[in-house]
Structure formats: C-alpha cells, structure tokens
Amino acid sequence: MKYQTPSTTKEAAAFIKREKGKAFVLAGGTDLMVRMKSGFIEPDLVVDIKQISAMQAIKKSATGFRIGAAVSAAEMGENTALKKAWPGVVESANLIGSDQIQNRCTIAGNLCNASPAADAVPALIAAGAKANVVGPQRRRTVAVEKIITSPGKTSLSKGEIVESITLPKRAPRSGDAYLRFIPRSEMDIAVVGAGVNLVLDNNSVVKSARVALGAVAPTPLLVPAAAKAIIGTKLNKAALTKLADACSAACSPIDDKRGTVEFRTEVAGVLARRAARIAYERAGGK
Amino acid sequence: MSGTLVSAVINGDQTEFVCQTDESLLDVLRNRIGLTGSKEGCGTGDCGACSVLLDDRIVCSCLVLGVEIEGKAVNTVEGLADGDSLHPLQSNFIKHAALQCGICTPGFLMAGKALLDKNMNPSDEEIRFALAGNLCRCTGYDKIVRAVKATAKELRKT
Amino acid sequence: MANDTKFRNRNFKSVGTRPPRPDGLDKVTGRAKYGADTFAPGQLVGLVLRSPHAHAEIKKIDIAKAEKLSGVKAVITGDETDEPFGILPIARFEFPLARDKVRYRGEPVACVAAIDVETAQKAIDLIKFKYKELPAYFTSKDAMAEGTVDLHDHRPRNIEREVDFELGEVDKGLSDADFVFEESFNCAEVCQVQSEPHAAIAEYDAEREFITVRASTQVPYYDHLMLAKVLKMDEAQIRMVKPFVGGGFGCRTESLNVTLICALVARAANGTVRLTVSREETFITHRGRPETDIEMQIGVKKDGTITAVDYTAIQRGGAYSGYGVVTILYSGGLLFGLYDLTAVRYKGFRVLTNTPPPGAMRGHGITNVRYAFEALLDKIATKLKIDAIEIRRKNLLKGPNYETLNEMFINSYGLPECLDWVEKESQWNQRKGKMGKFRGLGVACGHYISGASKPVNWTGEPHATVHLKLDWDGSITILTGAPEIGQGSSTMATQCAAEVLGLDMSRFQIITSDSKLTPKDNGSYSSRVTYMVGNATIDAATNLKTILIEAAARKLDANPDDVECLGEYYSAGSQDEGLTFNEVVTAALEGTGTITVKGNFDTLPESWGTKKYRGGAISGSMAYAYAAQVVEVSVDPDTAEIKVEKVWAAQDVGKALNPLSVEGQIEGSVWMGMGQAISEGTLYHNGLGITNSMLDYRVPTIIESPPIEVGIIESIDPNGPFGAKEAGETSLIAFIPALTNAVADAIGVRPTDLPVTPDKLMELMEKNTNNEKSVT
After folding, report:
1. Do residue C30 and residue B144 have CB atoms under 8 angstroms apart?
2. CA dihedral B20, B22, B26, B30 (to 10 degrees)
C-alpha cells in the first residue's frame, strides 16, 4: 500500500487521479481504518491530507466560516466563534463517537463516507453548507445535500477531493440544532437524526427554515415540506405537529438491526419537533 | 517487503522503527516496539482498550496508521508512572478497585489523563462523557468514576 | 462448625478489610502479560479459516497450494484429529476443526501457521473447500420440526436434551389455587463480551514430545484434559499455563476450539504458534447465554401464596452441546431454593441449531427462568392488588435449615434481610405508586449456587486442593490451580491465608494455574472458587500454623497448647519473650527443610443434589447466595427510551471477605444484567452473525451505567470460608426482572421479551391504547 502526504490540495487530487489501483483519502481514518481492517477495501494508495495547510484551519470571514477538510470534530468544538454561530452543526460533529473518535474524525470525512446515518450531514444540509471540491484541473462548489448520492457513494468524480466546507454568514435572529436517537450514548450509529436551521423576523415568527433528516432514507434528506410547515409560525402546537408529520412522511427507512421502520418514522417526527424548539430558542424566539 | 522508517517520540523517548504502511499504530506499539500495555479489544475503535495520547489528544491507536506518527509524540500507559512513583490515576485506580481483569485499564488511564490534563475539576457527568469511548465489562464503571474524581481532587491540591 | 458464633463477632485482621488487589500494580502499569502479550522467539502466526456455510457436508479440502507457499510451516484441517472434545463427558461431539460436516457459519475448518500475518492470510486464501449445502435451522422451532435434517446423527429431531420432572402434585396445586396466571417470554441470546478476545500460544518441543500451552481460560484443568485427548498425548507431556486473563463470565469455562487448534497446529509445525482471534471471531466462538422461550403458569391463593408452578423452557442450543445439558437442567433445578415451592412441573428442551454454540454465562441456566418467574409473580401482585415485596415475603422459605423438594439444602438464607434493606433504602413504601407519570419502581429476587457440589469431571479427588510453601526467607507462597480472571480469586486466597496466620498480606505471593507447579483446580466457574478454594486455603494455612506452633513450642520449650500465634510474633505466655515469625520459620525448617503443606476441601454428600429425576444432582451446592433489588426507571413517553435512574442491590454473600471486591462484583453484575435487559442481543441473518462487533452488540457504556447502592448482607454460612458464599452472579439474576417490573410500573404495560429496546417498547405502548397506568 502506498502512503503519500501531499502538502497541497492539487497535489493530493493529482495523486488520486493518477492512481491506477484503488485510492483513498485519509483524514481522521475512523471510517477508512475500519473498512481496511475488515477487508472491505484494500487500498493501493492512501493519501493523507492532514499536512495540507488549506485544509487545516477554521477561518471566519465576512461571508461565513470555512472549515478545512482536515479539521477534527474536536477542534470544531473548541472553536468558540463557530460554536456560537452554528451550535447545531458543531453539536452534530461532536456526536460522531467518543473523544477518541472526535480527536480524529472530520465532517468532510463523515460526508464523503456517505452513510445514510452520517451524523454531521443533516445539520450541514439544514445550515445550507457548501462543499469546496478540488480536482486536478478545476474547483467547484457543491451544496452538501448534492454530495451523497446513495449509501456509500458520492457525486465526486475520480481525483476530486473536498478541500473545505463553508457555512454561510449567520443571519441575525437565527439558530440551528441537531438531535439524534441512538440506542446508547456516544458510541452508536444514529437510528434517526434531525437537523433544523431557522431564521426569525423581529416578531419571532419563522421567516425561513431548513429541515434535514438522517438515517431514515438511503441518503440524508432535505425536507422542504417540513420547513414549509413552520414558516410563518411561532412554532405553535399545530405547526410542530405538521412539521413532525411532514418528517414522518418523508421517511423511507429500512427495518434493520438498529430500529424498525415504524419506530424510525415516529421518532423522526419527535426529534424534528424537539430540534425545531431548540433552534427557535437559540434564535431568540420566545 | 520493504517498510517505512518512522521517527517519533514515544513516552518521551526519541524512537525509530520500521513498519508496513498499512500497520496500525497499535500493532506497531505492541509488535514492533514491545509496548504491550495498550490492548486490542476490538480492532474497530469501539472499545477504547487501545487508547493512547497522540500529541496530547486521546485517540484509538487501532485507527491510526503507524506511518502517521512521523514527527509526533505518543504516550502510552507504560509512560504514565514517573520512575517508581505511580501517577495518581494509577494509584487511585488500585485504591478504589477501579479495575478487575485489567484489560480496559490502560485505555481508561490514558483517557482519564487526557481529561484531567484539560480539566482538573470535572463533574461526574463530564467524567462520564470523557470516558464514554472506553468499555469495561467487569466493574460497572462506578469505581472508575470515583477513582478519576479522587485523582482530580488530589491533583488540584498539588 | 459453629461458624455463626465464631465469625459474626470476631475481630478480623484481613478478612472484611478492603485491601487493594495485589496484581493491581501489574495491571495499571501495563506490565501484566495477557495471552496476546507474549512473544516467543521464532514464533509463528496462526490463522483460522472458518466455514461460510451454516450447515454443509465437507466434500473436499485442498490445502496443497497453501502448504507450498513460502513461509508457511503447517496447514491443518479436521483430518488432524478424530478425537472430539467437550466439557461434559456425556456430550463430546465437537471437533477442533470440522470433520465431515460444518454446522454453523464461522465454524473453524482449517488453520495455517506461517511466519507472519500476511503470509498466513495468503495461505488461507489458497485453501479450497468444496461443500454440499444442507438445510439449515436458525430457530428452535424450525430445528425441532418434523422432517428436519439432523445436525448430529445421534440426536434425532435436533433435541440435545429433554428434561421432564414433576415434584409435588402440580395439578392438585393448580386446582387448589384461587387464581392461575400465565405468561410467555422470549429472552434474546446474549454474549459475555469480556474485554479480552481469545488468545493462545503453544510451544511444541519435538525432541521431548512435550507441549506447553498458554491460553486465555477459566478452566486450565479442563483444557489440559482436552488437549491430551485431541492431541492423543499423555497428560504428563502437557504443561498448561494461564497468563493474566481479561475476564470470563463463562465464555472460557470450557475448552475453546481456539486453544485446541493452536496446540494442534504448533505440533504440526514443530514449533511455537501464537493464535489470537479477532473480536468478531470471539463473538463467533460464543459460549454465551442461549435464546430461551419460556411459558409459565403460577397458581396462587388469593393472599398471594404460591400453590404450584408449571413451565416449559426451550433453549436454542447452537450447533454443539457444550454445557447444554447442564444449562437446560439448571433451568429446572434452580427454580427451587428461593421461595417455598410445594409443586413444580418442568419441561425443558435443549435444541440444536445451526448457530454458534452458547455455553455457561454468568447466572448459568437460571437467569432467564428467574426473570420469567419474577415478572409473572409481579404481574400476579398487580392483579391481586398485593404489594410486590409483600407477595414475595409471603412465599419465603421458613428460614435456613430448609430442604427443597429437589433436595437442595439451604443452610444460610439472608433473603428476608435483603428485602428489608432494599425496601428501606429505596423508600419503597413511601414512593411506590406515587412516582408520577412514566416513572416507576420494580423489585425482584434471585439466588445462585456457590459452586456445584458434584464437579463435571468427577475423579474422587477433593474439590479443591491448595499448597503453601514456606521457605527460609520467611515468605509464604500460595500455590493454587484456581485461575484469577479478574474476579479477585488470588486476593481472596491471600486474605484467607493471611487471616489464619495473622500475617500481613505482603508476606504472601501467589502462583496460580501452572500445571507443573500448582495443584489441580477445576477452575473459575459456577462461583466455586471463594467457597472451595477459600476453604482449602484455610485448611492449608491451619495446617501450616500447627507446624509453626509446634516449632515455636519446641524452641520455647513450652507446650504447643500454650503457644499463641500472633502473626509476626509467637509467644508462650505473657512472661515469655517470644519469637519473631522469622525465628519460628528457622526453627520449623530445622531438620525438615523447606515446608510445603496441603489443604483440601470436600463438599458434603448431602449437598450433592437429588436423584429424584435424571440430572437433578446439578443444583446441589454447599451454599446459595441471595439477592433482592429495587430498580427505579423513567421512560421517555415519545421515544420509549428507558433510563435506569437508580438501583438498590442487596446481596447475602454469607461474609464479605473483601467488601471492596464484593461491591465490585455486585456492581458489575447489576450492570451486566442491565445490558441484557435493555440493549444486548445477538442477531443472525441466515446464520450469519450481524452483531459481531462492539458497535452493533450493545454493551452499555459509562454513560448508561446507573448509580448503584450496594447492601452487603452477611448471613454467615455455616460451611463457607469465614462464612462466605458467592458474590459474582446472583445480582445479575435479580436485576433483569427488577427492571422490567419497574418499566411495567412506569408505563402500565409489561414487556415480556428481552431486551426491552425502545422500538419494542414503543410498539407495546401504542398497543396499550390507554397510556395511563392501568392494571397489567
């Protein structure tokens, strides 16, 4: 197995494009190593992106936050400004496993691993995050919800790497939240995940919203009908019920060893309701 | 098969070793360097028995490649004691019977150290969340929490 | 032995104190060497090839290419030995490597020994098998149905064992009852998930035809027996050593195929082979608790007195017997001894299926049945509007010195005190029924043996033998075959010896489980070590003390009856200067040299259980420990998540030799019970294990672990070592029903199937349309 530690994104992309065999990006390794160990994948080349300076930092600017692909979830949790602006995104990243996992895993890795249950993704989708994708020849920006196409598969072509994830500028009176249901505490794969991002007007009425669900469909889902249910409301009981119903209707989960269809569908609604209330409170709503 | 030469600081000592690119740090520590204190409990990062400090951050060494530690510092349970004096975590684990079979113990000690290095006054809840990545099948955890709490108290006094 | 008066008020020096465990230092520094930590020069790596089919005939095995691969020293298959192994002499039908047939997915079929892992893996990939698939059965029901293919020719309809007994008059009891209640239960299969995956290292000395095996085990003696059998070697040519072991809970209470395969391939390779298996393979090796279906009827008078019990238990026994016969017998025999039962009818079925074989797991054989009984009894209490603790009090034994219908002799019985303790500490009477919505309290009881009085391999030898060696340096070495697996047996033995001799524990070293050094011991299972090895240690230490007193008497020119042993000091009266311990030792060694003494323990014949039905002797034990628990839960009404808020666990352990250790065992038991109750369970898809990882098999983490208040009750068993009984299994048994009873109290609907996971509970809550607390 070849192991490379490029110092620029272009170099990394070129390594991957050139490789005739199977090439993989290594950030935290918390997914890659598990798949290697189980024999699920046998890499010919592993490209370690942790030396690339463009991927190492969290940068705050006038247009929002740029989170490098090599930034660990723990580092995100330690960034006060990021936590303040996007508590939902940060808490979702901080739910990916124990401290041991947190110190290594990345949201870019979580996204590109493309699990239907990826914890970081629903909140990113709700936030309207974008992935900055770099290939050997060109760069492009892709909405996060367009990255995962099916379980384990992304829309990236060979040689394309996510260099960073950008979060838009935080509007005033806005808030986000992410909740998930798991059988135990930190260690599990989500049975249901719900991310909600809201912007309120001066009367605490929801002006705009984005609602995303994880682990209830082949890919994480943006649920426009759920957002519609709460726009123009102050999250009264009727609105929340409509929100929950819209979420349950959008689900197409499977029965598996982690939960039944009925359970996931029901709990998707429950969590979306609870996450919406938390986001509303964070946005300053009463 | 040729290997990669890696240079790193392990338990404070400058160390060099040769390993295959696909070998985990855990395998390197145990099989190449002879530090068998870190254990393989699952090989998939789910039990924490292989926990070590990598540049002062707690990680599962079964999920890190040996070649990744080039130029970095790793701390394992073998480096916890200072000569013949145990680290307060070690002595409190013994005192409070926070161990029975002992396999999970090195991992807990390192995770406990990572916590106390950052937070010398953790609440019970903070202790539990910091150690959530370590599984123990013998103790039921209560005495582990007590041992960490007692250590925090001791460290605050010094 | 009037233990009660002797021990209840005595000032103990070591017993009853909270000394740190002597091996703690090795474990916290990383110095302790477990099975996978030993590296021998020139060792080879062993790797096992496992069957991809759940049930198939082996048509052809081609190892030629594998053998020729450079770096491969041996490749073995089922042809290597035709000697089957198994823990029970009556049920030895398993081969280390499958012969003729494979019977579960993952069953070992070949093993390679090579210079490194990569070579071994390449060799494994070169082995070609041809199989003819057979119909496979993954549930008890399917396996027992008409027209199935037998897994084993000698077990028609795949029934490993059927148990059928009636003691007392059940039909009369049921008709005398004012009410008869019944319920059906399903308990999912669970696994020990001990922290250390299996590991073995075998060194074959070709010139001497001698093999040394080091393996993670709870039963080095049984390993030794089975090694001799499958290797077809003289027992004296085998040395069996146990390194540090990372937990057992029953997973290593019988010889594992891993250990036997390692020895076989080491001999085939004429060298040393290290065979460690992954966590996934450890799950496949299994030997956990079988899935059990129970249907139970209890007849009661309107005041709650039990008149009769009638029940069946069907255990999904996996592909090989292992402990199976014992497990299905315990499910019947151990119903007795907790409450006063006058009529019991039991039908048990141990069924062979194409799944990995379960074995003996903590609370062997009785855990699931006790759960069913305590849950049904609780349902009865609710229906009859009798308090759940009161209904249990109504059915207690009339004190110790009681003989059950199946001739179990109860000589110490601290259950009433356990119930009193949990009732008081949990404020049961003030809070039950007043907890508010979705919050509840539940109570349950349990009991367990302190070692089976009739061992598995009966040789006529004492049940336990311990040696003490005293030499010129004044240090005493305890030599015992009893395996320390983390439970604290070495600490216990040291404390017992220290207590008798009045010395500090630091005077002792303990060497365990090396067949060339230590006396044979049956092993760490069925909670026998404290009782049996503790007693044997006391016997040995007493013998040593006699020798030392006699030597001191000679030296002091006094009568031995006048010499007092004060630990570090021996004196013949207040006028006398006395001798230090070292001086006594010197005196004792004069003329004889190094002293070794022996201590034995034998179980009393009256404790050997009943002959009233075939296999009834299994429940016989010298003593039974008792537990009562109250559990408080809250249930999230929207997600059906259960949170265990608090546990009050009282256990009658006879005498807590080391309260620190006893608390640790009780806490660990409660927590392991919680795992079985709310999150653990193995799952198979067409015989493929889909929970064989520590992510998917849900062992509770530190965050779910509840606060546990431990109440140690000491009934001082008349025959136990200083009055002690078992401390490591009973509290697991009591937890599970206490939890489900608490859930029933919290939400007004009673779960019957384990584990009680949120999705199952939600379904149950939705079926119960009236979500307010109702009579269940």
Report:
1. no
2. -30
